[in-house]
């Protein structure tokens, strides 16, 4: 297990296993034993608290609380956790700039720079709004990570079943989730084969190879889909996939953390 | 150099440095926490009619033959995979396709709506692209608006007898641009400028994301074209199988 986990991370930046790194944590997290519907509601509650309260104090508290929960109780390595937090950073920063910088006459601005016929400027409000947005986005993402880094996809799908999402959709989700890994593995093989034949030697060839790989992947996947249906049917599939689920009890400790979060949020909202 | 000129150059330098940080670009998923609740809910509601239509079309397909379930699931997985693979590049930047445009051409826009929302949920949870409260807005821009326009342009070009490859490129390219415009609009509605309102804010978001999204749209067009050429060359029977999927609404 430990070695597998390292392997996933060594490939972390090279695209090949990048997509699985969050998923692979979900199976080794210390929070895995938590009752799933409770965990989903807790994460959603925290996200909603961050975006409705719109208060920097609540955002920062959520970031610290959820980060602590993921790293402390979930035993995610802190280096990996911070690296994962950087994934959404590009969007958050770019979007934040658009909120921060205003265009126009710019009376009463903190900083004003002439730009062609108009001015780019920053006001106290826009600075506050963009910093608030930074906080909200990172706070909400940390709550999303608490869930994503500790809950295998199968459990999330079965939780969706509890809120009456149609079974056809759930079945599609289960199958898509499995097929993603099959296709990714197939593509890794394709890529290796193409690379060893100098398929990525220059820009033009790379594009041609990449396009060819994906077209081939589609052909393969369409061909396999028939076989997979036969495989399903031979195992007694009659239009309904049943999955075994672990029973996860709601423990006092879990309720305590939820209550602690709500308590902290309420206190901060009263104070600030 | 006057003081103003120096200031302008400094500003441009700052902007370009920031732009180069964000070269690691994905399609424009609005991140978790970015939209106030009001907008999250509104965009979610706007998706419902399209999702219901998609759901019914999927049900119909399954009624035709249960075997279509694995085909649809493969289509969904394929969309996820093409959107998660790194596009080859010289600069070492890390960009990804949207994939929903190609999906719309291959599988039809109604089915892509449902597959798209599933893929977007998986992207949020497995890749941290997008989020749960922004799922509605992202679904609308990436799984509904973009694919429908792509499909419309593709069909229109076919009717007008435009060269097939030109129409594939145009459809994917314009669909991508449209997704980027819709996302900018969604962000601007949530964060209007005090001076100039939503309109000015749209321009801001469009220009901030332009350096990453415009090249990405061109790449998306070229790659969709290359994939379609390869499919047409090697996979006529499979394409027919998919064509059947599209007609069986």
Automatic annotation (TrEMBL), chain A:
A Pfam cross-reference name: CbiQ
GO BP terms: cobalt ion transport
Name of protein: Cobalt/nickel transport system permease protein
Alphabetized InterPro entries for the sequence: ABC/ECF_trnsptr_transmembrane, Cobalt_transport_CbiQ, ECF_CbiQ
Major localization listed first in the record, in broad terms: membrane
GO cellular component: ATP-binding cassette (ABC) transporter complex
Record key words, sorted: Cell membrane, Membrane, Transmembrane, Transmembrane helix
Membrane topology, record value: Multi-pass membrane protein
Protein location: Cell membrane
Spans traversing the lipid bilayer: 42-69, 81-107, 127-148, 255-271
Automatic annotation (TrEMBL), chain B:
Cell location: Cell inner membrane; Cell membrane
GO cellular component, one term: ATP-binding cassette (ABC) transporter complex
Main location: membrane
Single biological process term from Gene Ontology: cobalamin biosynthetic process
Gene3D superfamilies recorded: 1.10.1760.20
Pathway(s) served: Cofactor biosynthesis; adenosylcobalamin biosynthesis
Membrane topology: Multi-pass membrane protein
Alphabetized GO MF terms: cobalt ion transmembrane transporter activity
Keywords: Cell membrane, Cobalamin biosynthesis, Cobalt, Cobalt transport, Ion transport, Membrane, Signal, Transmembrane, Transmembrane helix, Transport
Keyword set includes Signal: yes
Membrane-spanning intervals of the chain: 41-58, 101-122, 165-188, 208-231
Family (UniProt): Belongs to the CbiM family.
PANTHER family referenced in this protein's UniProt entry, alphabetically: COBALT TRANSPORT PROTEIN CBIM, PTHR43627
Subunit structure, as described in the record: Forms an energy-coupling factor (ECF) transporter complex composed of an ATP-binding protein (A component, CbiO), a transmembrane protein (T component, CbiQ) and 2 possible substrate-capture proteins (S components, CbiM and CbiN) of unknown stoichimetry.
HAMAP family to which the protein is assigned, alphabetical: CbiM (MF_01462)
Job description of the protein: Part of the energy-coupling factor (ECF) transporter complex CbiMNOQ involved in cobalt import.
Protein name, as recorded: Cobalt transport protein CbiM
Organism: Kineothrix alysoides
Top-level taxonomy: Bacteria, Bacillati, Bacillota, Clostridia, Lachnospirales
């Amino acid at each position: 297990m430990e070695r597998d986990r390292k392997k996933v991370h060594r490939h972390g930046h090279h695209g090949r296993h990048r997509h699985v790194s969050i998923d692979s944590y979900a199976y080794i997290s210390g929070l895995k034993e938590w009752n799933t519907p409770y965990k989903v509601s807790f994460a959603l509650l925290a996200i909603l608290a961050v975006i409705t309260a719109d208060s920097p104090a609540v955002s920062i508290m959520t970031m610290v609380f959820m980060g602590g929960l993921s790293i402390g109780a979930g035993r995610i390595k802190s280096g990996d956790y911070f690296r994962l937090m950087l994934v959404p950073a590009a969007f958050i920063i770019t979007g934040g700039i658009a909120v921060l910088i205003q265009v126009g006459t710019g009376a009463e601005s903190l900083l004003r720079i002439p730009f062609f016929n108009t001015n780019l400027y920053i006001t106290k409000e826009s600075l506050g709004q963009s910093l608030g947005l930074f906080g909200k986005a990172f706070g909400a993402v940390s709550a999303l990570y608490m869930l994503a880094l500790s809950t295998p996809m199968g459990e999330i799908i079965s939780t969706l079943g509890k809120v009456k999402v149609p079974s056809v959709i759930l079945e599609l989700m289960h199958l898509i989730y499995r097929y993603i890994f099959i296709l990714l593995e197939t593509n890794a093989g394709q890529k290796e084969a193409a690379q060893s034949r100098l398929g990525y030697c220059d820009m033009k060839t790379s594009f041609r190879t990449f396009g060819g790989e994906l077209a081939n992947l589609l052909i393969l996947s369409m061909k396999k889909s028939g076989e997979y249906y036969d495989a399903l049917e031979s195992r007694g599939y009659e239009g309904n996939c049943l999955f075994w689920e672990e029973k996860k009890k709601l423990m006092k400790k879990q309720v305590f953390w939820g209550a602690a979060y709500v308590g902290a949020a309420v206190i901060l909202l009263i104070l600030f | 150099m006057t003081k103003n000129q120096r200031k302008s150059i400094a500003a441009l330098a700052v902007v370009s440095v920031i732009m180069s940080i964000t070269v690691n670009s994905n399609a424009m998923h609005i991140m978790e926490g970015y939209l106030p609740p009001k907008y999250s809910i509104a965009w979610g509601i706007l998706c419902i009619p399209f999702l219901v239509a998609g759901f019914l079309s999927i049900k119909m397909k399954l009624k035709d033959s249960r075997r279509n379930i694995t085909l649809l699931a493969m289509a969904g997985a394929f969309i996820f995979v093409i959107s998660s693979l790194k596009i080859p590049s010289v600069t070492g930047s890390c960009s990804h396709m949207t994939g929903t445009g190609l999906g719309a051409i291959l599988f039809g826009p109604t089915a892509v709506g449902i597959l798209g929302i599933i893929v977007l949920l998986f992207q949020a949870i497995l890749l941290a692209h997008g989020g749960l409260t922004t799922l509605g807005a992202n679904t609308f821009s990436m799984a509904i608006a973009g694919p429908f326009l792509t499909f419309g342009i593709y069909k229109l070009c076919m009717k007008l007898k435009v060269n097939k490859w030109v129409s594939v490129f145009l459809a994917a390219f314009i669909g991508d641009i449209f997704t980027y415009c819709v996302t900018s609009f969604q962000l601007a509605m949530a964060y209007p400028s005090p001076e100039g309102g939503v309109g000015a804010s749209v321009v801001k978001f469009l220009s901030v994301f332009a350096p990453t999204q415009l090249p990405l749209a061109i790449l998306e067009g070229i790659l969709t074209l290359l994939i379609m050429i390869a499919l047409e060359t090697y996979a006529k029977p499979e394409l027919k199988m998919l064509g059947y999927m599209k007609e069986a609404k």
